[in-house]
Protein 1
Amino acid sequence: MLGWWKNKREVRLLVHLLLPLFVHWMAKEMTRSVLVDVTTSSLCPGLSTCPEAINLNGLQQTTVGIFKMVAIPVLGQLSDDYGRKPLFLVTVSTSVVPFTLLAINKSRGFVYASYVVNIICLVFEGSIFCITAAYLADVLDDNKKAAGFSWMMGLFSASHVLANVLARFLPGDYIFEVSVAMFIFCPVYMTLFLAETVTPAPKVDQCLPYSKKAFKIVQEQYNSMRYAANVVISSPTLKCISLVLFFYELGMAGVNNTLLYYLKAAFGFDKNQFSEILMVVGIGSIISQLLGLPSITPLVGEKVVLCTALLSSAVYALLYGLAWAPWVPYFTASLGVVNVLVKPSSFALISRASSSTDQGKAQGFILGVESIALLLSPLGMTTLTNLFLSSNAPFNCKGFSFVCASFAVAISLCFASMLKPNLLNKKSEVDAETNVEAPLLS
């Protein structure tokens, strides 16, 4: 780790990337706990259970999943061809609008409008980790990438802790105003200080008519996505990780999407309890990602870390589903110290199995596969959550949807155990051959 500080260029690039992202994540997270109370009070005044809010949340996630399947691979590929900085600026700028609407008014109409606008925001925001992982791969040597991804996710967790501290003590009326100011800061800072790590290829079609130019762009995007799919499918490691992350997101996306609504309906939790639980998760995540993962990974490898985190995630979902007292969610939240290692370990595995010119394409395509899970997850989780929280439940288990989610995560663990460590440092032969075709969009 000391070698990082000797390379001033790496430190400077990382600071100018991670500082605005830290503020962005913090602004996003601080609205999470109060958003449940705002939507419930606006859509179902006087009630603790709000099927309309849960359905609206599920519909939003399904719609986002549909668009993410196409958008994230394209955005990841565009970051390879046109640079990381323009994609970062577009991504972090979109969050300003939906929360500005809620800062202006929290009536039913504005809540619906913010959900609609937030769909666009979430589609673009889904590419943040993809582009950030590609940026880190540009900047860091191979032996520092796992630690770099760990620090990225550790700062992500730290931003959540600070955000929930603010959400715990700030009056609810001011949270959206503060978050909007923080959202505006991010693109301004990136415009001034973030350095580009990709040199865009020179364009040779500047004189083409607009119609031909548009057709050429569509054709190039199709060819590039086909190339990205070939990169992933030709690599046993990347193909296996795709299945791991698909089933992981199939379960955990449903848990994350409905958890706070479930806790409010089952145990009467409010903004303060939400913030406390999220702080427990965040504090444990900081310790594991900033200190634990960089120390453990060189000893046991990314595969062992990934399998351990997936096992913890399955137990995490199961305990929430069987929670029998208000203290159980607090205990279960402590498992977040291990759960959060899924992302950095999978980012490291994807990066090591991809060539230097395909970082954005591989990360983007696999995140696109995850988006299919984001599309499918609400279809089951939203229905099951509403059913078992209602008086018409087939049997008394309010968290049955979380029990089902734990089985999906268990399937991802089975695929993770099939990863072959001897292949993690090898690029696939097809990838090496097709790497000559990488400048398809150039």
Note: The mean pLDDT is 76.
Protein 2
Amino acid sequence: MKLQLYLFSAMSYLLLTNQEEHILGTMFGYFDSANNSFIYDDDYKESAPCKMHVPGFNSLALMVVYFIVFVFSLMGNSVVVYVVCSMTKGRTSTDIYLMHLALADLLFCSTLPLWAIDSHFGWIFGNFPCKLFSGFQEASVYSGVFLLACISVDRYFAIVRATRVLSSRHLLVKVVCGVVWLTSGLLSLPVAIKREKIFAPELNQDICYDNLTSESSDQWRVNIRVLRHTLGFFLPLVVMTICYSWTVVTLFNTRSQQKHKAMRVILAVVLAFVFCWLPYNITVLIDSLFRGGTLTDTCEARYRVETTLEVTKVFAFTHCMVNPVLYAFIGQKFRNELLTVLYKQGLISKKVWVTYRKGSVSSVASIKSKNTSVSM
């Protein structure tokens, strides 16, 4: 988490005005495929266009930050997937969900190198990669929040309803994960279809952007954003809030320390997700209200929203590397499993392995309490 805050501070510091500045209309315009040119919202409104400029991130610094996030996310989430796959026994339904969550983060971080290069050199990868990786990014965000909602429901039945998590249920969990990935893929199709490599004369470079007409520009973006807000964030957030509120109340009424420890990592993962993505989603929602005409559209308001979007987007993108850090620092069982994997691979000595595992669960009986245990 400290690394994420450091990167966020660095990006805030590197918000420079002496770099290439973009006219505010660039983000609020659309591409006219008939005339092969950009047209901005202000060009066809009766009001005078905004003459102010929005300061851009230092493109080189932004590229470096994206590559740093990519490296840490790739290493951390790969370790999570490997550790869960290496479990010979004791794998719970939550383990499977968390492994798929790590896969979603891996899918998301796989797109970062391209966006990093795009931030500095423009889109140089062609039309098909533009569609493909835009779809990957969209699907990974949907699958991540859906999996968090599934975990909250799983913990509700395990703790509140005291439903035993039997190995026979693993097939059902895998089916649910399959449905999550399929749904996320379908929801990402509109973005993948509309996104194209387009030359932006104002930037003198190619960009990966939605190819829309003037009649459908704002309506399309508002509809896509409503879909993202409802299905991709706020509705799953409501499910998580209800399930975890009920679960926390149940935990307060029991003295079982094992049950309390079972929720630490999961709650930390959910809070990290909300902390990283909520500011960006709120900002995008405000921008959508401007586009839909619900809020009064002024140059000053556009300036503030556009600047906030740039900052919160970078902060949201760093989320893909946060979960492995939470597992390592909060999840005692995950640390033990990781040490076991390292010991079996000969990377650490038996003395280090035994010493580190002294803080693990003291009794085998408590570990076998499948109805409340969380592997991380």
Note: Confidence is low (pLDDT under 50) at residues 10-49, 360-375.
Protein 3
Amino acid sequence: MLLYLFLTCFPFLFFFKLKPLPPWPIELKFSFASIHKLIKNSFGISYFTSFHSKMSKKINFGSKVDSFREVEGGGGAISVLDLPDLALECIIERLPPASLCSMAGVCSSLRSMCTADHFWQKHMKNKWGRIIGPAAYREWQWHVALRKDSSLLKHGGPTTCLMRILSIVRPSWWFRPKVDDCSKQGSLPDDSIMSWFLALESGEFWFPAQVYNRENGHVGFMLSCYDAELSYDQRTDTFQARYPPHGRRAVAIENNVPWERLRAPPIDTSPHDLHLSDCLNELRPGDHIEIQWRRNKEFPYGWWYGVVGHLESCDGNENFCRCHQSDTVALEFNQYAPGSRWRNKTVNRKEHREEGDEAGGFYGGIRKLSSVEEISTWKRLWPSDILE
């Protein structure tokens, strides 16, 4: 019986030939061990499982082999590109920005994937979404357009009449356009989200946003929020802020501005324009508000925090209060001491526009605050001492 089994199986054993696994890639800039380490450090996976791919891709910068047999026959190599597209995308979307940049430098196929906008949208939103608004996006579009126009001039190409006009009338409040040298981004599309993210991260791109308690909490700006142009300092994880000139005053610059003192402009309008209030009819005592204020009509507006109070004719009893039915709205700025000329202000509910004078400044549009986050931010910035 044993002899029969031996004679039956012997031909198969004789002709069966084990083939070694294909060699690991050596022409990639980093090996599977590097990929394993990258993934482990990026999102905590400590074991990278083996895989078998029916369709294999050759490593040489994204060109593909026709079949697994061609790889098996020699000359090919198994790489991270052998992963199914869905699995590879799942890995890429979990990589942090620095790892995405590293992965994009490996080959043309990975570069094409790692620079795609949908992988960078999440990173842009998570890091910059709270302080980047429509004004910053428009500024980036102007920045890209001017850079393209500058590139045409550099290479002797004709610049359009439209671009010449745009370079003059770009919607920046006080600074002339600055075209930065972003050659470090290589052949990245100028209008890609990755290009914008890297420009923000490097500090090369100055963008409009607003700063609470400007100039390191200068007493004259407590509980206010002013427009500025910002540049990020990756080394300190803070910002440099450039404030527009006030009258004859030169441009003010503040360094080391932390993230918690920044926000995107809540109203998509120039700081020199009056905000048309749409909340006056619904204001009631206890509501939290922001109001535009400027020293004189040459200055830009800042947003100042206050609350809606009771009229002098009201004793504050909720059961008998009729303040919300009056055409006059009482505003209180309780960060100032009782008796201060800045403590109280009344506005007309139906006909309010900009009002004031050179002595007390000019009050503009009003925003009602409904967001708990906005209100808590103002309370967190409340001064330790009552202002005079």
Note: The chain has a mean pLDDT of 77.
